[in-house]
Write a structure and sequence with these properties.
CATH superfamily of the largest domain in chain A: HUPs
Structural class of chain A: alpha/beta
Largest sheet of chain B: 7 strands, mixed
Helix content of chain A: 40-55%
Shape of chain B: globular
Strand order of the largest sheet of chain B: 6-5-4-3-7-9-8
Number of domains of chain A: 2
CATH class of the largest domain in chain A: Alpha Beta
Largest sheet of chain A: 6 strands, mixed
Shape of chain A: globular
Oligomer: heterodimer
Number of helices of chain A: 15
CATH topology of the largest domain in chain A: Rossmann fold
Distance between the termini of chain A: 38 Å
CATH architecture of the largest domain in chain A: 3-Layer(aba) Sandwich
Radius of gyration of chain B: 22 Å
Strand content of chain A: 5-15%
Helix content of chain B: 40-55%
Strand order of the largest sheet of chain A: 5-4-3-6-8-7
Chain lengths: 393, 418
């Protein structure tokens, strides 16, 4: 952001440049920077056909910089270019004290400042667990797995409540480039293939798109700063994640060498092609909750089951893909054995455990204990949940 | 943004176990282990050799690309990997080999001294060392210079280098003697090459250019002098992992299968990578166990006149540091390349980048990807619109756009005549 004295804006050639654009290195004045940034997002939206007229669009809002700028820009472009969209803010309350409660406050302020209605869905309503409670169970490691898996479903459920046709998220170019690198480092070919798609989940689930696919994080921060947008900028208290951190550092170093690298990585990701003979997981639906899943049970249900049975590590770690089922079986066997050995001594406790097992809680429908959980039918679940959720308009 | 599976990575891997001298070979269960391969398996000397040779052979065998008695060009830089490659081929062709390899190798060395800015003494002594190694193998050996990519891709028998190093006078007798030219001042090709590299500002661009030129020269030589369709190179798993990540970072994702696969068939002459299964550590073990000397011509030197890190250099140190903490890093990255193919768009594009010769897309959406988009300023990027994106990025680093154009024109003209 070197203020270049005496250098003129490369776009209007009238005003003095006040910004060196991170993506291109061009000197620009503030107004032209805004114009270029907004125009790029507009181009991204129209060229990729992200929306149709009259659609209801839920903006996933965390209160952070990306989603705040996204909400602002969506509203701006919607009015400027007559997209004809109904916009909503959609927030997920993971139940993280000292982080989400504060950031939700800034989402509420955005709601008032921008005049976009807000819907909040919470983990405790949907799953019966807050992240705070989960972290007490599992510890600081691996808790991001829960949060990430649960959030995905939570957003979809929130969007269903809003009767939204589309969800937009604030993932920026840096995030996507980083994910490409992560998937290469992990050898996750299925995700590598789809992680740069601008629209995902068009089969079955509510389509999601990323209007900031080509927007640099640095420019988003700049935009928010110069527009004096109200956002929340604290790291999640549970977030430290070593491995992703490596990829992040590497990406930032690359950007320093050649700023276009971020977009080049996305271009690479888009032009990758997976061999036809490579087996990719087939998308089906979860037999328990009906959500899209490549396994018999979706990840959220496996994780929930683990939590509710006091086996929080179920579904975490090496067991992925095809051997997940075996993993669960193994765990069950192990549990069985442990029980055998305990049988003699602790008859009473065993009984208690059995009762606990019967009380599996899914999708927040605790009321239905012992009966077949209604999550099998999405609408039923939702009608059940809406009672607890107030629309905040 | 939280991701879901990072824990998998964290749990699978721990740092490689140090070699415990009490360990017994995991294969024969009788001999003492002397080295660790495949991240954690202890091997005795004999079993390691067997494993190594078998893997080398099977990489060849699977491809079924080399026919009986075929002449094959083997690119020898003197570095560790190509030293191992040379040794493996030598062993495979020797009398006592269990199942002899069936091809006939011709060894070629490229003198890249001009690019690295070596003094002529250093260039000569390197050439002498390399020649010595090649001469020991009894295979026909030749050498060339990188600048030959502009001047008809000539080669000289390695014996010339040995002789001329012995006595300066004799070299003048042979008509197109290359070693003498070093002292006779710069030839046009040399000037061109220097100009080209001076005009590339970033070290990333220089390294990328070096790779393209090297490849082009090898292909030209193979076709022109030896009439062979195959070149063996010593790229190992570690280097290919670095290249894969580096290529992704340079927008070359689409051509990863060509750049890191066993067979690179972008041109009529195929480039084969028979060492692609072996990481650095196993290459080093092989060298030590066989007491092979390598000549490090380039690895200890960065290209002169470039500022800061290159993408490739940064990627290499990133992969190495990850590898030391998570020992399956290289194999994981590397396996990714096995699962990729050239996209349909590229296969049918019919367009080739004149620089790296990889197929490239006809319609590249600059508006969205670009680095550009400020209206009226679209010239920042591609002035050479038919280049692959990776080469456009490299070309963008040139000070004088015309130099690159000029060189390319000369060069493609030359190779078309073949």
């Amino acid at each position: 952001m070197a203020s270049a004295k005496g250098i003129f804006c490369e776009s209007c050639k009238e005003k003095r440049a006040s910004i060196k654009r991170p993506k291109t290195g061009q000197p620009l004045c503030q107004e032209c920077f805004f114009a270029v940034f907004e125009e790029e997002v507009h181009q991204t939206i129209t060229q990729n056909g992200l929306f149709n007229k009259g659609e209801r669009v839920a903006i996933a809002a965390s209160g952070g910089k990306d989603s705040t700028v996204l909400a602002y820009i969506m509203k701006l472009l919607n009015e400027r270019h007559h997209y004809g969209l109904d916009l909503f803010l959609l927030s997920v309350d993971e139940g993280i004290t000292g982080y989400r409660d504060d950031s939700l406050e800034s989402v509420r302020r955005n709601r008032d400042q921008m005049g976009i209605p807000l819907q909040i869905v919470s983990y405790s309503q949907l799953y019966g667990w807050t992240m705070d409670a989960i972290v007490r169970q599992i510890g600081m490691k691996n808790n991001c797995t829960f949060c990430g898996v649960f959030r995905r479903q939570a957003l979809d459920r929130g969007a269903l409540l809003l009767k939204a046709d589309k969800i937009v998220t604030g993932h920026n170019a840096d995030d996507i480039a980083e994910t490409v690198l992560m998937n290469v480092l992990r050898g996750d070919i299925a995700r590598l293939q789809r992680c740069t798609h601008i629209i995902t989940g068009s089969d079955g689930a509510i389509p999601r798109s990323k209007p900031f696919k080509y927007s640099y994080e640095k420019e988003i921060v700049m935009y928010a700063y110069f527009k004096k947008l109200d956002y929340f900028s604290t790291e999640c208290v549970y977030s430290p994640n070593a491995y992703r951190g490596h990829a992040r550092t590497y990406l930032k170093d690359l950007e320093a060498i050649r700023p276009s690298t971020i977009i080049d990585i996305i271009y690479s990701g888009d032009s990758l092609s997976v061999k036809a003979e490579i087996k990719l997981p087939v998308q089906g639906t979860c037999s328990r909750c009906g959500y899209i899943s490549s396994q018999e049970l979706c990840k959220a249900c496996v994780l929930l089951e683990g939590l509710n049975r006091g086996l929080p590590r179920l579904g975490i770690g090496k067991a992925n893909g095809s051997n997940l089922k075996e993993h669960i079986k193994k765990l069950q066997l192990k549990e069985e054995r442990e029980r055998e050995s305990l049988r003699g001594e602790k008859e009473g406790e065993l009984e208690e455990e059995r009762v606990k097992e019967d009380q599996l809680v899914y999708g927040g429908c605790k009321e239905e204990r012992g009966l077949k959980c209604s999550c099998g039918h999405k609408t039923d679940t939702l009608s059940l949940q809406t009672e607890n959720i107030s629309l905040e308009f | 943004m939280c991701s879901v599976n990072e824990d998998e990575v964290q749990e699978v891997i721990s740092s490689p176990p140090p070699l415990n001298l009490d360990q017994v070979c995991m294969k024969c269960n009788s001999e003492k282990a002397v080295t660790i391969a495949r991240t954690k398996d202890p091997f005795c000397r004999a079993c390691f050799d067997q494993y190594f040779t078998h893997r080398f052979r099977s990489t060849f065998g699977k491809s079924r690309l080399i026919r009986q008695g075929e002449e094959v060009l083997l690119a020898f830089s003197g570095g560790q990997s190509s030293r191992v490659l040379l040794h493996l081929v030598q062993e495979g062709l020797s009398e006592h080999a269990v199942k002899r390899l069936r091809f006939t190798p011709i060894i070629i060395y490229i003198d890249e001294g001009v690019v690295y800015g070596y003094a002529s003494e250093r260039q000569k002594s390197l050439l002498k060392e390399v020649s010595g190694i090649i001469a020991q193998t009894q295979f026909p050996g030749y050498f060339t210079k990188l600048e030959e990519v502009f001047t008809g891709a000539r080669v000289w028998p390695i014996s010339d280098a040995v002789l001329s190093a012995g006595s300066e006078q004799r070299s003048k007798l042979a008509a197109p003697d290359p070693t003498s030219s070093i002292s006779q001042g710069e030839m046009p090709g040399e000037v061109k090459l220097k100009q080209l590299f001076d005009s590339l500002k970033s070290s990333t661009a220089k390294e990328d250019m070096l790779q393209s030129l090297r490849r082009q020269l090898l292909v030209d030589i193979a076709a022109k002098y030896f009439n062979t369709g195959k070149i063996l190179v010593g790229d190992n798993a570690t280097r290919l992992s670095v290249r894969l990540l580096g290529n992704i970072a340079q927008g070359r994702g689409g051509t990863i299968p060509l750049d890191t696969g066993f067979c690179d068939n972008r041109s009529d002459v195929m480039v084969l990578r028979p060492l692609r299964e072996f990481p650095d550590s196993e290459i080093a073990s092989y060298l030590t166990l066989h007491q092979l000397q390598s000549v490090d011509a380039s690895s200890d030197h960065s290209l002169p006149g470039s500022s800061g890190h290159s993408i490739e250099g940064l990627t290499a140190s990133f992969v190495h540091s990850l590898q030391s903490n998570f020992s399956s890093t290289v194999s994981t990255i590397f396996r990714t390349s096995d699962k990729l193919q050239l996209s349909e768009d590229l296969v049918h594009s019919g367009q080739c980048c004149p620089l790296c010769q990889a197929p490239c897309e006809e319609s590249f959406n600059e508006e969205v990807f670009s680095h550009v988009s400020t209206s009226g300023n679209n010239k920042l990027l591609c002035y050479v619109s038919s280049h692959s994106i990776g080469c456009r990025l490299t070309a963008r680093g040139t000070v004088h756009e015309n130099i690159l154009e000029l060189l390319l024109k000369d060069d493609s003209g030359g190779s078309n005549e073949l």
